[in-house]
Amino acid sequence: MKKSDLIDLSWDEFDELRDPRPAGNDFDAVVDRAISRRGFLGGVLAFGSGAVAMGAGVFGSATSARAQAAGFAFTPIDIATDFDIHVPEGYAWKPLVRWGDALWSEAEGAFSPETGVSVEMSDKVFGENTDGMELFEVDGKQLIAVNSEYVNPKINLPADSEGMPKNADEVVLLKNLQGVTVMEVADTGEGYAVVVDSPYNRRITHETQMTMDGPVAGSDLVKTNADPEGMSPKGTMNNCGSGRTLWGTYLTCEENFNGYFGATGEFTLTEGFERYGIGGEGRYAYEKFDERYDLSKEPMEPNRHGWITEIDPANPDSTPVKHSALGRFKHENAAMTQATDGRVVVYMGDDERGEFIYRYVSNGVWTEGGSTDGLLSDGTLYVAKFNDDMTGEWLALKPETTGMELAELLVHARMAGSKVGATTMDRPEWIAVNPLKSEAYCALTNNSKRGSEGMPVNAANPRETNDYGQIVRWRPEGEDHGAETFAWDLYVMAGNPAVYDNAYGGSDNVTPGNMFNSPDGMAFDTQGMLWIQTDGDDSNEGDFAGQGNNQMLVGNTETGDIARFLTAPNGAEVTGLCWSADKKVAFVGIQHPGGSWPDGDGIPRSSVISVWREDGQAIG
Ligand code: FEO
Ligand code: CA
Ligand code: CA
Ligand code: CA
């Protein structure tokens, strides 16, 4: 494969090429291959609410009255196939910040639609491909911490590079346009804008100095020539989803880190490299210009990535911390809550076909204003087993349960999870914890290989060749997120009821009027409504006919109703959602748009937009 071919792949297609896959799992129950729609709905009935509680076709023809009956404040919108944003009547939107926009005045005007941003200005602007984000109130200011997941080299590098850097400067340019941005935002009276030159503004890139804590810090598995102590990794990469701690810091989640490494010479393709899709050539040729990314020179460097990293947005001089106790995998997001006894609980998904859902539980407890020492470095990592009888359990990953040393089982959490019999899932994306009820939701985006390759069909992942995805939810025993067991069901199975009248038609809360595929981003608002963002097939053809562009929907988790709120420009996924302090504005991430959205000057720009109600009421 030519270099220029490699860079044309999506991250998901790149994974297909590397083909990391779970070990065959004896514990993974094989259920009836002919999926029973009745069986699925039986599961929903176990919870007494959700999909089965409503008749099909509630939003087959959406009306305001029906939407209000379901608790929605808006009239659901139709699909779109154009290169624009659409929101319900009575709502409006505008861009907040675009790839290449200045965070400091010296970079104003730095972006050109023809040449992008210069290397000199590349760490002074908002990065590309916006993803997870959270808003923090600090000293009366509003700060957004937001990820830039990856970069499109074809539009950032000179045309003659064909999407691969030709020198070290071009590598620096790409590194700087990814990572994390902390930016102050303010309502100017004409909508929200970034506060250029705010002392809180900060860029964190693939080169930013970090520290590591927890059991892996100082282990041989993370020692490199540049850091023989194994305590000071540099950079956070492929920052996908987000999380926030109870104490007001940002959690950035390192996902497809594997793609940044390659080898210029001999290296050993270990079991760990294979399971994590590491090897061969990197997507951006970093290894040619920077030894840190060269597996033949620094074989332990990939072990320093794939972690949950904590950033204090209130202190621009703070050093980010990689929390090894939370395990290393392709982190989607991190949903923090508390056990009844005050211990900190973090739910996390590993976005790969057949990988697992994890939970971390601290040993110490958190109280408002109390110490946070050790809360993310001293605890136990668990992995989820979803039984076919709609119960589930958290399996502890410990030396006693895995036969692996503690540092080893955290670095290779996937292998540890296989050893204890975790359930292979259909690509766990975001997890959201209901603020009003003891339950958590995980978007399982899709899995083209379910039913093969060590991923037999199971009750929580019930469809072979699952191109539509589903959302699983669990309720912990005793309403305690620290409990060892839970009950689960499927909140929704996405599908296309206009094409299929079997399980691929989706659950009963999916109708021709609200259908979608590939749920990904999720967040609860303060009212207990579940906002669902999609990252799927937007061809509007074949199995996806009638589903249009990627979208953001709102789910009522009590009734099961789901209504479409926003449609993205064709080509884009919707990812990342947070709200202004007064909840009157929702900030929504639009990643990899097509056409020339939003400026119409020939080049599409990944952007965060503001969305608000024209009557000034809160939107979440
Ligand atoms: Fe970066 Fe799994 O999405
Ligand atoms: Ca995602
Ligand atoms: Ca994506
Ligand atoms: Ca996705």
UniProtKB/TrEMBL annotation:
Keywords from the UniProt entry: Membrane, Transmembrane, Transmembrane helix
Transmembrane segments: 40-59
Signal peptide positions on this chain: none
One Pfam family cited in the UniProt record for this chain: PhoX
PROSITE patterns, per database record: TAT (PS51318)
Cited InterPro entries: PhoX, TAT_signal
Protein name (Swiss-Prot/TrEMBL): DUF839 domain-containing protein
Taxonomic lineage from the root: Bacteria, Pseudomonadati, Pseudomonadota, Alphaproteobacteria, Rhodobacterales
